[in-house]
Design brief:
- It holds the Pfam family PH.
- Keywords: Calcium, GTPase activation, Metal-binding, Repeat, Zinc, Zinc-finger.
- There is one protein chain.
- 35% of the residues lie in helices and 22% in strands.
- α9 packs across α10 and α10 runs antiparallel to α11.
- β15 and β16 form a beta hairpin.
- The chain is built from 18 helices and 25 strands.
- By secondary structure, it is α+β, with helices and mostly antiparallel strands.
């Protein structure tokens, strides 16, 4: 049994933000901090929203709404933990309180050098004692002990404060921990790591004076049972899919019927991943195609709703086809971003002043802007269609086979000549309208770009996406009538329709043997989990670190982390996957950059080694760390601690320890990862999420069972030991009861530590 926690955050918009620039406005962006993870800020801070785990727990379906920004006080921006030992010991006259300040980790860097000069102040009963100052460290070790006289029945608390010492300015507050001395009387001793808390004694500005953020945040904690507990549920669902529309129970239609629109996307994704893990994704989608076709009478409404079929197919394309999408769209999207041309086809929106001059003296006319824009879009659309036409063999076999099933089912349902284009439109409704077009409009969300496009580039991408939609709609009169100003693209669109139909004909022309051969060939390869340029820090002499680094192209697969001079050059393995022991951040002061990570591994001789890699931004850093942790999560010998600094000279830069083999001064975060489209399938988690959803609609399923069994005289669903009901819906209800009992009888998972650790969003 395991505990799985996930946190999803969507920052929608802001309002009433104060102006920070001389122009009378601001250029706002948000920084997300979880558990007070350090973020270096060099811009003007407007305010923050802070949500604790307890706050999110009161919204089981997620928090959605506007939250007021509050001011950011340095005394509240604390992070890290402190290691203390507290004891009540005998004294010459009375019992004494002994406080041993051992060490701290992950303290906030308050100085320009990326570190702090921390010391600890211990206060009790009017007396104050201080530790020595540890210079330039966020991971200090003191090992100092203080004693205070205790009075029987005393109620005053013991306060332990961490401070950053400054020579010329006031000391910076790093956090505090407060202890109930009465409790110590009872326990006599307490030792552990304690999270530093902020000082919230100051008065605050009125709510709303700094503006607000609209947020959608959901925290989900799941207790996942052993695999065997979910096997009856998995077998039952798989049996239904294998039987298809001929099955007696038709559980999949019932699940769709009882699933609200609000949670249909999540349910579709969970089911799709479950069946992918069982090798039944194609069969599951084929069943959904048949169900949708069975209730559709008008060809022009096919797959246009947010049905379970549509949502499942969207998830399938993201999971199985994202790398294919990158190969086709990536170069076109990069070209649009690099050119940064002003493009506009709508005469009512043309702004000549934004374009500049066509010659040395004369500004461009509106007609010239429109013609130049049309030519730019024709070029991009033509390049995209050409890339698509050449990509048949690059498309994953399972995607091609699924589209083959869709094409055949639609052609069987609408066989007449007047519906000749309907099978093609069915394919493009997913490939173009629900996959390619959204990726063109929002390339960052599909990991095609690191940043969102600016206003000018966004408009170009939107117009290109509209053109792709027109091609996907097979250039129907209805699509042309919506926006007449798209007419200049019609020659390219008409040519694109012919290209697209030819592409789809070849795409779905795949037989079972070819599908299996392609899948077998793919299984022999190790596809990249993540790849891209990184800077590798080099060493000099006997492992001495230098500040220099070299840019190389890195590729992470399920076998190794490799590098090459260019993406097309021959790769050399740097670290075998099985040898990775940790992947963690490096503190900023080590290399003068906050975007450096370290991969700790063992070489072939079993000797510990570390390679330092620099990313170009914090988002890329987190993506690489997440990818490395996911592929090595099952490795034996993963480290529990590490050094966030480097061993330079004769000591570690983080904690100043002189033993190079020291275990480490900070804990590793091997299970802290990002949720990505290419995550390895977690079969038990998907089964648990499906169970959780079905449990929520159990009442509706029981009511449906009563309706279906009213004429058969069937009684209660509950069966005796070793017995199983015959009809699938009754079996499902029985399985839900069994799983509910398994959860009830399992040891209650302890709540995650740090219940009030904040999720902070700063603008």
């Amino acid at each position: 049994m395991a505990k799985r926690s996930s946190l999803s955050i969507r920052i929608v918009e802001g309002k009433n933000l104060p102006a920070k620039d001389i122009t009378g406005s601001s250029d706002p962006y948000c920084i997300v901090k979880v558990d007070n993870e350090p973020i270096i800020r060099r811009d003007d801070v407007i305010g923050k929203v802070c949500l604790t785990r307890d706050t999110l727990a009161t919204h089981p379906k997620g928090f959605s709404g506007w939250a007021h920004l509050t001011e950011v006080d340095p005394d509240e921006e604390v992070q890290g933990e402190i290691h203390l030992r507290l004891e009540v010991v005998p004294g010459p006259r009375a019992r004494r309180l002994r406080c041993s300040v051992l060490e701290a980790r992950d303290l906030a860097p308050k100085d320009r050098n990326g570190a702090s000069d921390p010391f600890v102040r211990v206060r009790y009963n009017g007396r104050t004692q201080e530790t020595s100052i540890v210079k330039k460290s966020c991971y200090p070790r003191w090992n100092e002990t203080f004693e205070f006289e205790l009075e029987e029945g005393a109620t005053e608390a013991l306060c332990v404060e961490a401070w950053d010492w400054d020579l010329v300015s006031r000391n910076d507050f790093l956090g505090k921990v407060i202890f109930n001395v009465q409790r110590l009387w009872a326990t006599q001793q307490e030792e552990g790591w304690f999270r530093l808390q902020p000082d919230q004694s100051k008065s605050r500005r009125g709510e709303g004076s700094l503006g607000s953020l609209q947020l959608e945040v959901r925290l989900r904690d799941e207790t996942v049972l052993p695999s065997g507990c979910y096997q009856p549920l998995v077998r039952l669902l798989c049996c239904e899919v294998k039987l298809g529309t001929q099955g007696p129970g038709q559980l999949i239609p019932l699940i769709e019927e009882t699933t609200s629109t609000e949670c249909r996307q999540d349910v579709a994704t969970n089911l799709l991943k479950l069946f992918l893990g069982q090798g039944l994704a194609k069969d599951f989608l084929d069943l959904l195609f048949q169900l949708e076709l069975g209730r559709t009478s008008e060809a022009n409404t096919l797959f246009r709703s947010n049905s379970l079929a549509s949502k499942s197919m969207e998830s399938f394309l993201k999971v199985a086809g994202m790398r294919y999408l990158h190969g086709v769209l990536g170069p076109i999207i990069d070209r649009v971003f690099e050119e940064k041309k002003y493009v506009e086809l709508d005469p009512s929106k043309v702004e000549v002043k934004d374009v500049g001059c066509s010659g040395l003296h004369r500004p461009q006319t509106e007609a010239e802007v429109l013609e130049q824009s049309a030519q730019t879009l024709r070029t991009h659309l033509g390049a995209l269609l050409s890339a698509l036409s050449r990509s048949v063999r690059a498309c994953p076999a399972v995607v091609r086979a699924t589209f083959r099933q869709l094409f055949r089912r639609v052609r069987e349902r609408f066989p007449s000549a007047q519906h000749e284009n309907v099978p093609f439109i069915a394919v493009t409704s997913f490939l173009c309208l629900r996959f390619f077009s959204p990726a063109i409009m929002a390339p960052k969300l599909f990991h095609l770009r690191e940043r969102h496009a600016d206003a000018r580039t966004s408009r170009t991408l939107l117009l290109l996406a509209k053109a792709v939609q027109n091609v996907g709609n097979m250039d129907t009169p209805a699509s042309r009538a919506k926006e007449a100003w798209m007419e200049p693209l019609q020659p390219t669109v008409r040519q694109g329709v012919a290209q697209l139909k030819d592409f789809i004909t070849k795409l779905v022309d795949i037989e079972e043997k070819e599908e299996l051969d392609l899948q077998r060939a793919l299984s022999l390869q190790a596809p990249p989990v993540k790849e891209g340029p990184l800077f590798i820090h080099r060493t000099k002499g006997k492992g001495h670190l230098m500040s220099s680094f070299k840019k190389l192209h890195f590729s992470l697969t399920t076998e190794a982390l490799s590098f090459a001079k260019t993406p097309s050059s021959k790769k050399s393995a740097l670290v075998k996957l099985a040898n990775i022991r940790a992947a963690e951040k490096v503190e900023e002061k080590s290399f003068g950059s906050s975007h450096v990570m370290q991969v700790i591994y063992e070489d072939d001789a079993g000797t510990p080694q570390t390679v330092y890699l620099q990313c170009k931004c914090v988002n890329e850093l987190n993506q690489w760390l997440s990818a490395l942790r996911k592929v090595s999560i099952s490795n034996p010998g993963l480290l529990g601690s590490y050094h966030p600094g480097v061993f330079r000279g004769d000591k570690w830069s983080c904690c100043h320890q002189k033993d190079k083999s020291d275990l480490g001064c900070d804990k590793t975060r091997s299970r802290v990862t990002l949720q990505e489209w290419n995550d390895p399938l977690d079969h038990d988690l998907e089964a648990q999420l499906i169970y959780r959803h079905l449990l929520g609609v159990e009442a509706a399923l029981r009511e449906k069972h009563r309706e279906l069994s009213a004429g058969t005289g069937a009684g209660s669903v509950r069966m005796g030991p070793g017995e199983a009901p015959e009809d699938p819906l009754a079996q499902l209800l029985q399985v839900l009861q069994d799983l509910q009992e398994a959860h009830s009888s399992s040891p209650a998972g302890s709540r995650p530590s740090g219940l009030n650790r904040p999720l902070a969003l700063q603008t």
